[in-house]
Amino acid sequence: MSENRVNFKNQNIIIEDRSKIKITGVEQVDSYNETTIVLSTIKGGISIKGEGLNISNLNIDDGSLRISGMINSLTYISKEGTPKNLLGKIFK
């Protein structure tokens, strides 16, 4: 049985005025609160830090994510370095 998942080839990030960010190639959001959003993309993990962060649009089917709020930093996390689930985080 085949999986209904779309294979993404590109991962793009567009930041507008440090208050809006659009990311493509998103596979899942790992954690989220007002100051930190951690997500997995086809190119590895990304950690976004800021103030008043809000996910305004998430579409896993086409791999797009929109975030609003004050964006202070964006950090790439290597694909090998990110645990994919809670058990991976506990036993790291």
Automatic annotation (TrEMBL):
The lineage of its organism: Bacteria, Bacillati, Bacillota, Clostridia, Lachnospirales. It comes from the Bacteria. This is Sporulation protein YabP. It comes from Wansuia hejianensis. NCBIfam families: spore_yabP (TIGR02892). GO terms for biological process: sporulation resulting in formation of a cellular spore.
